[in-house]
Amino acid sequence: MEFRHLGRSGLIVSRIAYGNWLTGSSSRSEETELACVRAALDAGITTFDTADVYADTAAEESLGRALKGERREGLEILTKVFAPTGPGRNDMGLSRKHIRESIEGSLRRLGTDHVDVYQAHRFDLSTPLEETMEAFADVVHSGKAHYIGVSEWTAGQIRRGHALARELKISLVSNQPQYSALWRVPEAEVMPACEELGVGQIVWSPLAQGVLTGKYPPGAGPWPEGSRATDVNDGSPELAAWLNDDVLGRVQRLRPVAADLGLTLAQLSLAWVLRNPGVCAAVLGASRPGHITDNAKAVDVRLDEETVARIDTVLGPVVRRDPAATRESSPPTPDWRLA
């Protein structure tokens, strides 16, 4: 495994992070979760990413059980706050109330007294950013998190949050955007802003919901019940955007590119993501331990410019690049909690 500083902070993370957002899906069980975490540890992965909303809080509990007995100082545990974790109007968002209550719940479920990075899962248009950042500062200054991060914020939102964090003497060190060879939305605005500010990228969905593994051949749908393509807990709404024959056919055309390097399609796709100097870590989920073992090998791959050009030629027409897609991922209006 390779390791890198998270942005310009002193925190070091593994280039592959294990993400357990698949916990609670049709393809996962507690036994599988434990086996996947063990495979991650065996592969040298020390960075583990989760969120309070995953599997209705059960994912944090599962990760806490899986990591029990491991040396806490040797791990980097990241979790997130924003999405609803209860029925009340204050059980969501980035208000002081929700952040203070959520960190306590996350620590209890994870079985630890602190997380290494506490992340805003989305930007909250209904709460003043000053209130949000002051609440995060309280969390850090109380020792319940070492750093803060954000996920799917726009470049402007990250700049404002970073400036407030500095005023409050806390470190906003990471951004977690969707990023893959098919989804290059952060490249235009978000990544340049983060590079300027010293904020590192911990990217999610580097395999485009599994599409870049090649397991969805063109013309093979409809997908069977119980598969990831039909399970909303496995991310099927995001996956559905890629399940068309043009995209799937182009992914299959990458097989010779991978074969020339002795790689699987998944390893090729992960290596493409990790070649970006702003990407500190790629969050990798798995439905089987073997996926972690095989895909973690991508950290040793260095793609030359000719290979990158071949990938761009094949995927170019179906790549998503519009920066507006980052704004679309956040709540559409300030009064979303009252809808």
Main pleated sheet: 8 strands, parallel, barrel
CATH H-level superfamily title:
NADP-dependent oxidoreductase domain
- What share of the residues lie within helices? 25-40%
The unreliable regions are none
CATH architectural arrangement: Alpha-Beta Barrel
Mean pLDDT: 92
Tell me the overall shape: globular
Strand content: 5-15%
Description:
This protein has helices spanning 30-42, 58-67, 96-110, 129-141, 155-167, 190-197, 236-240, 245-252, 255-260, 265-274, 289-295, 305-315, 324-328; strands at 3-5, 12-14, 16-19, 47-49, 76-81, 115-120, 145-150, 172-175, 200-203, 279-284. With 339 residues, it is α/β, with parallel strands linked by helices. It starts with a strand and ends in an 11-residue tail after the last helix. It has a single domain (3-334), classed as TIM Barrel. Helix content is 37%, strand content 13%. The mean pLDDT is 92.
List the defining traits of the structure above:
alpha/beta; two-stranded antiparallel ribbon; TIM Barrel; 8-stranded parallel barrel; globular; 339 residues
Short description:
The chain contains 13 helices and 10 strands. With 339 residues, it is α/β, with parallel strands linked by helices.
Describe the secondary structure blueprint for this structure.
Layout: E1 3-5, E2 12-14, E3 16-19, H1 30-42, E4 47-49, H2 58-67, E5 76-81, H3 96-110, E6 115-120, H4 129-141, E7 145-150, H5 155-167, E8 172-175, H6 190-197, E9 200-203, H7 236-240, H8 245-252, H9 255-260, H10 265-274, E10 279-284, H11 289-295, H12 305-315, H13 324-328
Parallel strand pairs: 3-4, 3-10, 4-5, 5-6, 6-7, 7-8, 8-9, 9-10
Antiparallel strand pairs: 1-2
Helix pairs in contact: 1-2, 1-11, 2-3, 3-4, 4-5, 5-6
